[in-house]
Each structure stands twice: as structure tokens, then as C-alpha cells.
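# nightly structure sweep
# worker-07 picked up a monomer target from the shared queue
# config: single-sequence mode, recycle default, output format = C-alpha cells
# input follows
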Amino acid sequence: MALGRTYAVCLVGMNGHVVEVEADIGQTLPAFVLLGLPDASLNEAKDRIRAAARNAGVPLSRRKLTVNLIPASLPKRGSAFDLAIVMSALAAAGDVRACGSTVFIAELGLDGRLRPVRGVLPAVMAAVGAGHHRVVVALENEAEAALVPAADVTSFRTLAEVALAFGADAAQVKLPDPVVHADPSEETVSITQPRDLSDIAGQQEARFALEVAAAGAHHLLMVGPPGAGKTMLAERLPGILPDLEDDHAMEVTAIHSLSGDRHCAQLQRTPPFESPHHTATPASIIGGGSGIPRPGAASRAHRGVLFLDEAPEYERRVLEALREPLESGRLVLHRASGTASYPARFQLVLALNPCPCGLATGKGTDCVCTAQQRRRYFNRLSGPLLDRVDLQLAVRRVGLEDYADTRAAESSAVVAARVAAARGAQRERLRPWDVVTNSEVQGRILRSELALPRGVTAALDRALELGLVSARGWDRVTRVAWTIADLAGRARPDADDVVTALGFRLQERAA
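# output follows
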């Protein structure tokens, strides 16, 4: 009995499972049997693999070929198993030597070329974590796979090259014609201009709120008329956030690799910015799709910003589903085909008009909305969701004096330096609790080890007694007060910091 063995990786959400691929060549009539809960796309691999092997000069055995994917109880999907299956079959026939513990991750074309697949980064991370350090991928996935420390990555263009590397007969292997690459000097390079805070005229209070949000990783809600600059402010938030650290950058890059947005040739250091349209489906924002649920915009915004413009226009179930990741930083998606868990620790930025027509500003004489229409518009954002938003800001319309002001506004670089200093102060203070930012501090810590004197929190305590803030709101106002103190370079918040933080909490309601 001839038996070949290789390894592949099955991704379930962000979690990868190493799959042992066994191939057995029997003595019966020709057949190709694939076992181990393959889905429809993986079942199609049987015909794809036979054609690829034949065109590469290493045809599969004409006897019965049985391939088993272990563990058999784990559903497998996708075309990333192609290379592992064909290499196990060739090893079973003696056409290549034993592959040892090498993990193969690539799709095959009918001509025998290796095609890139999505999710290579989390797949290689799972392989290395399970002790399989040698990985073979398609050439286009090499840079992404090499991002994983301790991974021994080898890339190839074709199945023929892989077979030769593992001892195939060079006289039989068919190497394709070399690919002619375009001259890099002839390629057009698009340059995206960075979005800077200096582009915004006026809006000093909104700029300060944005700085506080960046410094403490707080969620932000902005209410204002059309054209007040809400979208411009939100788009500039990533520019004042600190660059991602190594572990966070690896998480973010892995999510984008799994989403298939692009080939990730290097770690993404810039905090991501996701702004789905209000007509987007729940699956595109929260995550989902056929088979194992895929990450949505909320997960792609991990360690960055999720901006929902015209927030009341989103489906109610989408907005309510965000309550879980706002607290836990994770999204767990349950489907009939399986359960997937994705990180989703993002900063939520909500923007909305003061009423459906957007003209209820100042005296509101131009507004055509009834009181009932305004109430229904705001009620689309539930109280529990708003209670999780630390900063609630009324954005005023820009006046002529703002344009007449010739003083240069602070740039994103200047603000980012203050944000970085505040983040550093938080990191040192919160190190005993393994917390990085003020927004992550638990309420019990705020009321014990980091408790402020009653004289400092007097205004906040009074607001709690009057029902203007909830118990959760009390904690969130205190967190914002700590962030304001960090930006000012103070060791602890004073009464003015608490009042300022409370004002941000109540401002939208008052407006």
C-alpha cells in the first residue's frame, strides 16, 4: 500500500487548524475520492488537480486515489488545499519524496501555475504555532507569508517547480515559459494626499474632542447640520492616532488578508479607517456570508476607526449588534455552518444631522420637520448604544469669522505628538492592570485604585443623582477626565477636567 502525507491549514474565522492530508493509491478501478467534510469548492479540486498535474508533467496515478483530510470532523472549504492534496498524491505514487512536516498553501490553475489565496498570513501563523515552520506558497503570497516570525517560507510559480524541489524526475517535468514582467518604470504610481487637520477651518471645540477621542481611544458622536465638517473630522482621526505596535499590526494585517482586500506585502502600521454606506447589508458590516462567516467592516476597522455617517439611516439590528464589540472588542458570529470569532476593538464615530432635513440649527426657522419626526429620527439610536459613546458633541456650522482667521491651524503631526505623549502616560499608569488606554479601564479600578476625591467628582455625582448619566456613564465620564488630564500633562484630573468631560457627555442632549 502506497501512502503519502502532507499538511495544509483550515481557517475558521481568525483561527487556523493544521490539517493532515493523507493520500492512498489502491489497486481498483480509477477513481478520485476526497474525504473529510470538503465543501463544494473543495470537491471541485479533484478535476482541477488532475489537469494541473498532467500539464505540469507529473500526472496522477490512474488507479484509485483516496485523499483524507484530518481531522475529519472539521469542515474544510476553499481552494487553498489544492497544492497539499496534489503533493500528497504524488508522494503516495513515489513521484516525489516524502514532504515531512511541510505545509502547502496554494490554489492550482489548470496549467499547473500556483495561484495566490486569501488568508495566507493567519494560515502561516497557525502553522508556525503548531510547530510546522516550513511553508510553501504561491509567489504572490511570499511577502505576506514571510511576515510571520520563525516561518521558513518558500515560494514557487508552478507545480512543476514544487515537484522538482521535492525530487521529481527532471526529464518528465514540464516547466512553463517564463513570465515577462512589466518594467516598473513604466507603471503609473498614484499618490494619495494625506488628510490633515490643518484643512479644517474653525471648529476648535470639535478638534479638541477629536484629540481627546484619539488620546484615550474613546467613541465619538457628532451632531450637526450638513456641511459643518463632521465627515472631514472623522476622516482625519486616523492621522492623529499612534502607529500600530507589532502585535496589533499583525492582527490588523491578518484580518485584511482574510478579507482578501489586497495582498499584504508588509505589516499595516496605520490604523485602518472603515466607512460603510448606510445601505450596506448587516453581513458586510458585522460579518457573515455563505459558509464560515467572513469579517465585516467592524472587524476590518480593528485597532482603527469605524465611521458611520448618517447613523440613524443604518438598520437597527446593525447598530444594536455593535454593542457587543464596543464592550468586549470581539465579534462572535454563529451560523449553521460554524462559528467564527474576529477581533473588533475599534473606535466608533457616529455622525448625524440635528433632524431629518438637517436644518434644525440655531433658531431652526428653516426646518420643516415636525417634533414627532425629529423624535423618531433620534430614537433610531437606542439609549444603550449611546450610553457606550464617551463623547457626544454638537458640531456648529462654520461661520465667516472662521474663514477670515488667517492664523494657521494646527497640523495633524502637532496634534499626534500630544496624543502620543498622552498615550505614553496612560501606558505607564495602567501597566499594573495590563491596560493600554483609558477607555479600557474597568469601572472597579476607577472607583478603587484610581478613585478621585469626592470634591473633584462633585458635578458628576450630582448628574448621577439627577439621572442625567447612568452608572456606565459615570465610569465613561471619569475615563474621559483622565484623558483630558493626560493631554494637559497633569498627574490626576481636577474638577475642571471632570466638568469638561461631563459637558461632552451631555452636550448632544442639550443641543
